[in-house]
Write a structure and sequence with these properties.
The chain is α+β, with helices and mostly antiparallel strands and about 325 residues long. About 45% of the residues lie in helices and about 10% in strands.
Length: about 325
């Protein structure tokens, strides 16, 4: 007799046999009923909560995402509706994904399955999967002694960085000097679908090897200038207590006045610049969730109140 789908999905995750481990989720769920899919999700959710293995936990989360995103709604159709609890939606927006999933599961148990509820659960499981991976990266970064201060600094009064005196001396124009950094652009010659990231790297290490090259660029025929690094960043002190971020390519700029704005990566097109600010320690990751204005942190960084930073890339 064929084993239930829920057992098959967990076998795919835990098996060391390539014939089982490499099976697609669709092959298990394609002909399964809604009842079997729901029992599968219940088993997978219990499994991911109890597993201490990062790979198993994350793969179970993405199985749950795929089942709720693609398989259950297709079998339910549009006639089955379920209201998504507002509290769960609020937790999703606040990146409290575990709490959101618990609320959605409780509501599903009370009202029954629905396409909208599965959509909400899919969003929660997907986000939790990436958050779990990010937490592992954060743990790896924190394990290095030189990085630990960034995660222990939770208030501007504990902030240890100071700009060098040369950056704080005004020139003849009355403006502060500009610090310019350049770097080559990276080209991934064997990079296909992020082949060196989590899943392929663990499932098939031989296939996760990549070849990268660093490239300087020049315009052929324009002049005789040699190739130069095309990625540029400029930073200078300004007489405003703000963190001003500008992307030349995206034609976007923003003045950030609170610490919370730095960690709001999806509010505009400057998410990559904000990530660089956090990764560099200008606004360290330990300050995520802090309610203080940026002015107090910038005051310690620039050694004087009323000053800020202008970062252009």
């Amino acid at each position: 007799m064929t084993a239930p789908a829920a057992i098959e999905c967990i076998r795919i995750i835990t098996s060391t046999d390539p014939a089982i481990r490499n099976r697609s989720l669709d092959s298990v769920c394609r002909n399964a009923s809604v009842e079997i899919l729901l029992s599968e999700c219940e088993a997978l959710d219990t499994f991911r909560r109890g597993s201490g293995n990062l790979y198993e936990k994350v793969r179970a989360l993405f199985f749950l995402y795929a089942i709720h995103r693609f398989h259950i709604p297709e079998k339910l159709g549009h006639s089955t509706r379920a209201l998504v609890p507002h509290a769960g939606h609020t937790n999703l927006l606040n990146r409290r994904f575990d709490e959101a999933i618990d609320i959605f599961l409780a509501a599903q148990k009370t009202t029954g399955p629905g396409a909208s509820m599965s959509s909400a659960l899919a969003a929660g499981y997907r986000a939790l999967g990436f958050q779990t991976l990010a937490d592992q990266v954060r743990h790896s970064v924190r394990s290095l002694r030189g990085n630990q201060w960034m995660f222990r600094t939770g208030h501007p009064s504990d902030f240890p960085l100071r700009l060098r005196p040369e950056i704080l001396q005004r020139g003849e124009s009355g403006l502060f000097p500009i610090l310019r950094e350049t770097t080559p652009v990276r080209m991934d010659l064997t990079h296909s679908g992020w082949s060196d990231i989590f899943f392929l790297g663990m499932d098939f290490p031989e296939g996760a090897r990549v070849l990268n090259v660093s490239i300087d660029l020049a315009v052929r025929g324009a002049d005789s200038a040699p190739p130069i690094p095309p990625v540029e960043a400029y930073v200078r002190v300004i007489d405003e207590p703000v963190l001003r971020l500008t992307s030349v390519d995206l034609k976007a700029t923003a003045d950030l006045t609170t610490i919370a704005e730095v960690f709001d990566f999806a509010s505009d097109y400057l998410g990559l610049l904000k990530s660089a600010v956090v990764a560099s320690g200008i606004v360290p990751p330990g300050m995520e969730g802090a309610c203080e204005p940026l002015a107090s942190l910038l005051e310690r960084l620039t050694r004087q109140p009323g000053r800020g930073l202008d970062l252009v890339s």
